[in-house]
Structure formats: structure tokens, C-alpha cells
Amino acid sequence: MDQHTSNLPLTDKSEVSAKNKALIFTVVMVLIIVAVMAVVGFIFIKPEPDTIQGMGDATEIRISGKLPGRVSQIFVEEGQRVKTGDTLVHIHSSLVEAKLAQAQALEDVSKATNKKVDSGTRSQIIASARDVMEQAAAAAGIAKKTYDRMESLFSKGVVSAQKRDEAKAAYEAAKAGESAARSQYELAVAGPQAEDRQAAQGMVKAAQGSVSEVDALLEDQYLTAPADGVITVIYPNVSELVATGAPIMNLQKDDDHAVFNVRETLLKDIKEGTKIRVRIPALDKEEVMTVYYIRDLGTYANWQATKSTGDYDARTFQIKARPEKKIENFRPGMSVVYLGVK
Q1: Do 143 and 230 fall into the same domain?
Q2: What domain range includes position 310?
Q3: What is the SS3 string spanning the chain?
Q4: Mean pLDDT over all residues of the chain?
Q5: 198-209: per-residue pLDDT in tens?
Q6: pTM above 0.90?
Q7: Mean pLDDT across the stretch 213-234?
Q8: Are residues 246 and 271 in the same domain?
């Protein structure tokens, strides 16, 4: 017994003992109450479900063509809505047009040659073919001198590259014309043999193929909208040069949808065709969407387990869903909150 307690009167000793018992009882009751509250909370209080937040999205198409040239005219502006088939831009190419003229001239020459072979060779035809060949050779010589002169001036910085290229195109066309005229003359001299007829027909087909090739390029001088949508970005300005396949502008299609990235544990009730409820906070609306796309994002997007044992890494899947009806003012980039399966 404590020395101080032993010196207390009996009445005081009883009061100290009663206070100790009361304190112990209070502590025990507090512990019991805390334990009961913890058990009740564990049983009845459920954690809030995970919030799955996605965003609005839409398909973007890059408008580009196979014709290299200069932007002559742009018929739309950023933010403008267009319909399928609307003309967007005109691209002009003097080089391709020169190639078309060259190809058409070769086609005319080859057809004339084929016709002459079929009708037989006459002395007048031979003389005419020789004259044409000589004229073509003279034209090629003049074109060559012009090109050499332009090349010299270009190297000195006097003329532009475009002028030099135009002179080169004219020279190439003249050479082609000379070659075709020479072939025509040689055929006239040799006479209409079976091999000659086949060669003439082959020249016609080759020339027609060249014309078709250039025509295919020129089809892209006017680019049109492949779908309904909105022009979001225009890259070049009028008069700027564009290369083959270079993007001219972006078209955002009218296919608004929502994109979510979720853990695989949340996919048990979701599959393609499932209708889900979502909320769009910016519009303060709840809407119904249909899932049409589910894809694994790969190991780089795994959700890592927080416990070393008793848990596992969860893969991440991307889900896309379309609204059942058009949502007014819904735009790509807006937040979309998943509420559950309908």
C-alpha cells in the first residue's frame, strides 16, 4: 500500500477507491461504445461508389489530296458547318496542267500514228511524217535553249524556280513530241507490219494511261467534304504551297460520343449494346447512351495493386458510347459522369 494512502483516514481511502472504480468504469464504457460504433459502421455504412468520369469526343478527319500545288482559294472558314460534297479548297498546279497537255498531245500523236499504220503507208505520209519529225526536233531544240537559259538565270537568282520549272516542263513536252514524231516517221518508213500495228496500239494505250494518270491527279484540285461536320482547323493560307498528302484542314464529324477509361472490375455489367446512364455537368443533364466500343488499353494503363498479397493488378479498358438522341450543345471535351447501367 502507498505510504500516503496508508496515512489517510478510512473515509478518505473509500473515496479514492470509489473514484478509481468510476474512472475505470468510464474508460471501459467509452471503449465499448467506440467498439460498438465501429461494428455498426462496418455493417451498415457502405463506401461511396467510385466516380467514373469520361469526356465528350468526336471523329476528326484530316482533309488532304494527292495534288501538289498552290492553294488558289479556300471556300470555308474555321467553325463553319459543311455538308457531304461541299467544295472546301481549290489547289492549282501549273506543272500538272503542263503534264496533262503533254500527255494529251502524246495521245493525239499516238492515235494519228495508229490510224496511219492501219491505212497503209504512202509516200506523202512518209514525207509528212519526216516534216513533222523535223519540226518537232526544231521545237525541242528551241525549248532546250530556253530551258538552259532559264537554268542559268535561276542559278544567278534572276528568275524564280517556278519559271525555271515551267521552261523545263515545256522542254520535256517538246522532247516527248519529238520522240513521238520520230516514232511516227519510223513507222511510216517501215510500213504497216503486224508488229507495227501492235506497237501503235500499245502507244495509244500508254498515252491514254498517261492522260488518265494526270486526270486522276487533277481530280484533287477541288477537295470536297467527305462527311457532314464542322471545319475545326485550316492549316495553309491562300497562295501557300502544299505537298502531296499534306493536311489542308480538319473536319469534325457529327458523331458526338463519350469516352471512358475504366478498370476491368467495373465491366461485369457492361458490354457492347448496353445502355448506360450518364450525367453532363456542364449542361446539368442526365442522358442515356449506348456502348458500341470496348477495347483493352494495354499494360501501360494497368491499375496497380495497393497490397503485395491478396490483390491483383486490374487492366484498363476504354469504352465509347453514343447518345440515343442528339444532345443540344454537347461538345467534344465536356466532362461526362457515368451513373450506371439503365
Answers
A1: no
A2: 256-341
A3: CCHHHHHCCHHHHHHHHHHHHHHHHHHHHHHHHHHHHHHHHHHHCCCCCCCEEEEEECCEEEEECCCCEEEEEECCCCCCEECCCCEEEEEECHHHHHHHHHHHHHHHHHHHHHHHHHHCCCHHHHHHHHHHHHHHHHHHHHHHHHHHHHHHHHHCCCCCHHHHHHHHHHHHHHHHHHHHHHHHHHHHHHCCCHHHHHHHHHHHHHHHHHHHHHHHHHHHHEEECCCCEEEEEECCCCCCEECCCCEEEEEEECCCEEEEEEEHHHCCCCCCCCEEEEEECCCCEEEEEEEEEEEECCHHHCECCCCCCCCCCECEEEEEEEECCCCCCCCCCCEEEEEEEC
A4: 79
A5: 666 667 677 667
A6: no
A7: 81
A8: no
